[in-house]
Amino acid sequence: MNTVVNLPPLHAGNAKLRLGFGTWWRCAEIFYAFYNEVYEMEYSHKPVMADECISGLDIDPNGIYVDCTVGGGGHAALIAERLDEGRLIALDRDPEAIKAARQRLEPYKDKVIFINCNFSEVKQILGGVRPKGALIDLGVSSYQIDNPARGFSYMKDAPLDMRMDQRQALTAYDVVNGYSEERLEKIIREYGEERYADRIASRIVAARENAPIRTTLELASIIESAVPELPRASFRSGYRRQRSYSHPAKRTFQAIRIEVNGELDVIEPTIRDLVDLLLPGGRLAVITFHSLEDRIVKRTFAELQKGCVCPPDFPICVCGKEPQVELITKKPITPCRAELEDNPKSHSAKLRIVKKL
What we know:
Blueprint: H1 23-38, H2 50-57, E1 64-67, H3 74-80, E2 87-92, H4 95-104, E3 112-116, H5 122-126, E4 133-137, H6 142-146, H7 172-178, H8 181-192, H9 197-208, H10 216-226, H11 235-241, H12 250-261, H13 267-277, E5 283-288, H14 291-306, E6 325-327, H15 337-342, E7 350-356
Parallel strand pairs: 1-2, 1-4, 2-3, 4-5
Antiparallel strand pairs: 5-7, 6-7
């Protein structure tokens, strides 16, 4: 569908350049605004480490597979095209993702079952079905980030929302305007790993006393005012030490998004449910995009591999728990140089794979 748009002047609104610390990312903001006005927003998905995922899942053409986060259907298409009598069950909590995936996977419609749900419900959804493999891609889709109406981005003005599932009640507005200063500081520090969490939380609470904080750019501006600038001479070295300096609001927006969607709470139980469901020899692949997710996946895989939970000083095992998985990836797989150049958003991705014993 072709769309005629009127481009905003580059000097208008939030596209003004600022001196000092923020100049370079304001330049990026100008390009970002221009790009999104010129090109129609579509739900697309460039699958991260696609070859590594497909190889790691060791697809059985007659097996049942579960894509727990189908998104735009990138990984799902690669799985579906390798199936003969097998089937793919495609899950996503975002109805727009399901709609987009249906369109992308139209050539495989006889092999794919779409279900709009949170992947934490996978055990109830599958019932007695035993899959041969499953994939969880924990990344937030480009469509959700880039679509200003969803309120995920600190680069475009929009109502504070950040819900992956538009049917849920809790929004970013509720978190920002309703949480106590102590609770805000806790989630910003823990989920955003932000060193200035106390200053940011204090500035948010002070700002909302005058009027509710309603938009993404309003919140981003408040965060920016709370984060001290790096001295010009040490900017580059400081950036290398802490990636948060790509934008002062990056880590806080991540923290609020995680809180709104309960992203971390469902990872471990879902992994354990999937391992229980998998057929012997079946594989589970999980892609993470930040250290909080990866720690949970790494720890859970290690516990499932170990089995026994007896204290180390016990001479023999009395718990009776056996190892449930074998680690296929002793260390996480990361994107190759070519993929990083082609898809910079993949830079923080890590892939871990286990096989059910």
